[in-house]
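Our preliminary data section would be incomplete without showing what the modeling component actually yields. Below, a chain of 147 amino acids is followed by its predicted structure, encoded as tokens that our downstream tools consume directly.
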Amino acid sequence: MPDLSHGTAEDIAAVNALRSSVMRLSRRLKHQRVDESLSPTEMSVLGTLSLCGSATPGELARKEHVQPPSMTRIVALLEAKGLVRLEPHPDDRRQKVVSQTERAEAMLEESRRKRNAWLATIAEGLDEDEWAKLRAAAPVLEKLAHL
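Predicted structure:
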């Protein structure tokens, strides 16, 4: 792995271009939301529940890189909107388990469909060589997103 403090100009330029393009693409994707009443953080929590399944608020806080009190507030907001339900933890009565509702699943599916359609539309401007590079880069970007 390159040490960017002593990296080549090419490595530094690549990291800079990646940062800039990921941030720009992320901002554009955020405008493709289905439900404007949900914050990006709330959508992220629902996405985590969809991907990982039910979790305690503490587990969600770790996965989302937020403090537990913040996650408690987010979960309460999502519960009030009917998007998650809290159930007793099977092994620890002090804990609750957060699960997404069918309404949340449907909303996430519609959001993914809309964002995928938008990405597919803008990707129509890529040539076959660029598509091949994108297919090759996708697993690497996925790995970076989860490190």
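The chain is about 65% helix and 5% strand. The longest strand covers residues 84-88. Preliminary results of this kind motivate Aim 1 of the renewal.
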